[in-house]
User: Fold this.
Amino acid sequence: MHLLETQVDALRSKEKDTDARRTYDQVFDHACLLVLQHLIGEDVFATLDYPVSTGKEAVVFHASGSDGAGKAVKIYRITNSTFKTISVYIEGDPRFKRVKKATKPTLFAWAQKEYLNLVRMQDAGVRVPTPARVEDNVLVMEYIGDDTMPAPLLRNATLQDPQAVFNDTLENLRAIRKAKLVHADLSEYNLLFWDGKVVVIDVGQSVPLDHPRAEEWFHRDIGNIAHFFHRLRVDVTPQSLEKAVLEG
Ligand SMILES: Nc1ncnc2c1ncn2[C@@H]1O[C@H](COP(=O)(O)OP(=O)(O)O)[C@@H](O)[C@H]1O
Ligand SMILES: [Mg+2]
Assistant:
């Protein structure tokens, strides 16, 4: 425990801004430190290095394996706003939606769900970060990027050949379908671009095709992707993309 607390303290004290420090205090409660310690003990990773992203619902860190391989450690935050967002997806039918209290078990189920969705997508041929382990609200997966930088979001990447990137994205959309899932938050903000290829991330909210809102969310995903590539002068509409995904 001592070693990890030293690492976390070092990360925390690097933050000058009080908001960021508060984030650290929220994320690293005692239970979470124990989970991280356990993952280190099991050699899932060896060191927690630096934060890559601090979102409303999760904080993502760069970590290193004992073999030097980069790992992404995504820690779901225990806040009320997270639960308002999450409960819509977790409970099947929005008509029966109750706003749930931010219970730890619900949060753990969410992390578990993201892990299982990663496994299911990877098995179907979707390019996702290889999942390594989930424990409570902590998900460990392959880090996309290198020591110098994380992979940029597709949104911020410079694309030499938008048509080729579109084709690659289409293959991934078909594979998500093959996994019988709908991503449900797909856009240029949840696709990374690395080594000339897209990588699908942030699959915690992904739902099976028989979810009552699967259709609606599928259309939204398709619309986001079609608009993004259309702006890059790829010849695509939501209708043509949907057809290509379903008939592929
Ligand atoms: N496996 C990964 N490798 C590299 N960077 C990652 C990885 N997973 C997430 N990130 C970075 O962290 C950010 C937030 O992760 P994401 O899963 O999208 O959570 P959220 O959007 O809910 O905060 C991403 O936009 C990306 O920049
Ligand atoms: Mg995201």
In short: Residues 104-123 form the longest helix (20 residues). The chain has a mean pLDDT of 90. The CA atoms of residues 12 and 22 lie 9 Å apart. The two ends are 51 Å apart (CA to CA).
